[in-house]
Amino acid sequence: MDSASPEVAVVKMYKAREEIYPREIQGRYASLRWFFVWATQLLFYGLPWFSWNDRQAVLFDLGARKFYIFGIVLWPQDFIYLAALLIISAYSLFLFTAIFGRVWCGFACPQTVYTEIFMWIERKIEGDRSARIRLDRQPASVAKFSRKLAKHLSWGALALWTGFTFVGYFTPITVLATEVSALTLGPWEWFWVLFYSFATYGNAGWMREQVCKYMCPYARFQSAMFDKDSLIITYDAGRGEPRGARHKDDPAAAKALGDCIDCSMCVQVCPTGIDIRKGLQYECIGCAACVDACNSVMDKIGAPRGLVRYWTDHAMANRWSAEQIFSHMFRPRVLIYMSVLIFIVSVFFGTLLTRTPVKMDVIRDRGSMGREIENGMIENVYRLQLMNTDESEHHYRISVSGIDTIKLQGAGEFALNGTESRAVAVNVRVDEAKGEKGSNKIWFTLVDIDNPDIHVKEKAVFFVPR
């Protein structure tokens, strides 16, 4: 290139990822994080093996279109409960974010939980932070390959067990275990076991903080749910600055500096690699690892804890105490979230626990309009789709009303086994002189013979030829 030509500038559209090696830290919030790891994973891995009424306690049987949740059986017609559950989850997220910031991300999010487990495996096999850095910088060798292979095999085994457990919520897990041992899984079961295993292995083992920074939408709109009274991880710059190293034998120099000794421990323990001293950043997941790290350093230099801590913007500006922060917690937006959430939860559980354990859909035979039969009677044919949503057998009686002399032709009593669905064809007749020409409203009533309080009533149309 000619020396007089302008230099060519290369602009990279994407920043290259820098490997993050989080340091292990002990402390109050680290213990709380591991509590949630144990609690969520004991629930996730153990729940499919728990039995209820001689079946799996929690089973989403898509083939039979039945969702079993302990003593409750939900059908496709109960989709409203799923919608309500999603609304409850959304409002719960709004409420806890408005008060506590990103506590969900930092302690209970599956991405955080599995990343914590995978990093624990990595530390056990490859060593602490400095050992992992040295290992990655070493040239290829048998020892390095062996450690890496052991780590990835351990990750893969855990990921496969996670994928197997996930599918066990949709296929009875004892049946699934038998099929896996005999290698007779169906193609879709194989697909979902491997797909969920690969997702767990990739997200928790390789992508880690990138999922939180680039893939999770929550990081992008979290600021819309925060206000100046939301608890966030903050660095007390007024107390910590000017930062700098100091020597125990030089008290004069220590007095001229803030409490921050610029040890970078808060950066080394951060799973997303940010410096909390630069202020709140969208990458911060609120895990409080930097709080534990900073508190341990403050203990060593004899300074008060809390240089990095959960705080609010108003508390930091006005130097509020914990009591003052708590007094501002229940502000209007929080009270509104709480009121709406309590109302929705009350309605959800109230309707779920008091719902009628029988369903009936009435469909009139459109291929056969009202027809005249013997003795001058008019007959319509209907198909009743009946569902017993309880797990015990019930005996029912069908009746019809709405027109004088209207009656069912044939037996109107029958039994339905637990969680059974059945289509029943019924003929309904009226005298020719009864009812108006054209459409007439009628009602089908289904009553539990043993418990008349259990009943359902559905409207239909009876057609009388003109």
Q: How would you explain this protein's 3D organization?
A:
This protein has about 475 residues and is an alpha+beta fold. Among the domains are: about 30-75 and about 110-205, no CATH class; about 360-465, Immunoglobulins (Immunoglobulin-like, Sandwich). About 45% of the residues lie in helices and about 20% in strands. The strands form five sheets. Strands 8, 9, 10, 12 and 14 form a five-stranded antiparallel beta sheet that branches. β15 and β16 form a beta hairpin. α2 (about 80-100) runs antiparallel to α17 (about 330-355) and α4 (about 110-125) packs across α8. The longest helix is centred in the first third of the chain and has 26 residues, at about 140-165. The chain is elongated, with a radius of gyration of 33 Å. The termini are far apart.
Can you lay out the helices and strands and say which pair or pack?
Elements: H1 28-46, E1 51-52, E2 55-56, E3 58-61, E4 66-69, E5 72-74, H2 79-100, H3 103-108, H4 110-126, H5 129-137, H6 142-167, H7 173-182, H8 187-207, H9 209-215, H10 218-221, E6 232-235, H11 237-240, H12 251-255, H13 265-268, H14 289-301, E7 308-311, H15 313-318, H16 322-327, H17 332-354, E8 358-364, E9 371-372, E10 377-388, E11 394-401, E12 407-409, E13 413-416, E14 421-431, E15 438-448, E16 455-464
Antiparallel strand pairs: 1-2, 3-4, 4-5, 6-7, 8-10, 9-10, 10-14, 11-13, 11-15, 12-14, 15-16
Helix pairs in contact: 1-4, 2-17, 4-6, 4-8, 6-8
